[in-house]
Amino acid sequence: DYRAYLSTVDKQKASSVNRRLAALRTFFKWAIVHGKISRNPLNGIKTLREQKPAPRWLEPRAEHRLLQAIEQRLQVVQVVESPDDQLAPADQRAYRDAAMLMLMWKAGLRVSEVAGLDVGDVEIRSRRRGVVHVRRGKGRKARDVPLNAGVIAALKDWLRARPSEANTALFLSKGGRRITTRGIQQVVAQLGREAAALIRPRTAEDRALADALAMLSPHVLRHTCGKRLLDAGAALTEVAEILGHEDLNVTRRYTQPSAADLQRAVDRISSVE
Question: Which residues does 68 contact at the CB level (< 8 Å), separation at least 6?
Fold first, then answer.
């Protein structure tokens, strides 16, 4: 009766109801241990089934604004006059940030994998063919990740702008050392805020997009890559191999529809001829 009251009268979500039941179950276990009661009244009381939320990924409109924010940064980069000249440090970082973002967004790399890359791990064969060798994957598992034209272009721009006397690390901090995962997270968060500023919040949907970009993280970029791969028709096993998942159930999360996916689904039948 209490479970039904919380759900139907108090209008609480299934997750909230289940937390309350868990708290009571623990309390009654304590009461049994201390001789206060003889049996747990919550034995046999099942929890409510919860609708599992989909991983957070960017909607296409938000992706467009993020790409726009990157392009705006690159538009103000000063062009060098001769091959011997070098870009200003701020302009170098604009290319660096774009390349790091593209590896997570369009190739699905983890933030730790991006930070651990060396220059020799990138193999560019043509404008449309390339691969990055991830040697420090999760669980010490190495894998080769194919690159598309957009990622290759961003990497080529960074490799041209990258200081030639630098160490073997692919991505460098302001001090010329290997960038840390925290440094990459800060770059992603800043680009997300710049992209969010490009949205005029006229509707609730606009505000939701701006909020999603304002909270951008490397993991959201990686989730976006997995979602777009499946949307484009890639097999579950292919996506798992690209993202470095050993368990297909982890990859299967990207088949879980988001709230926006469900809204688009019902919108398709809004008008019946």
Answer: 195, 198
**Which of left, alpha, beta for 123 (phi over 0: left; psi -120 to 50: alpha)?**
beta
Task: Provide CB contacts within 8 A for 39, sequence distance 6+.
Answer: 32
Q: Give the 3-state secondary structure percentages of the chain, helix then strand then coil, rounded to 5.
A: 55, 5, 40
Entry pTM = 0.77
pLDDT for 129 beyond 60? yes
Q: What is the pLDDT of residue 51?
A: 64
Token representation of residue 167: 């160490």
Tokens of 230: 């499946």
Task: Give residue 53's pLDDT.
Answer: 64
d(CA 134, CA 145): 7
**Angle (CA) 81 83 84, round 5°:** 95
Place of tokens 């989730």: 223
For residue 9 the two structure tokens come to 């009268």
Provide the pLDDT confidence category of residue 124 given band limits of 50, 70 and 90. very high
- pLDDT for res 83: 53
**3-class DSSP assignment, residue 135:** coil
- Residue 123 forms beta bridges with which residues? 131
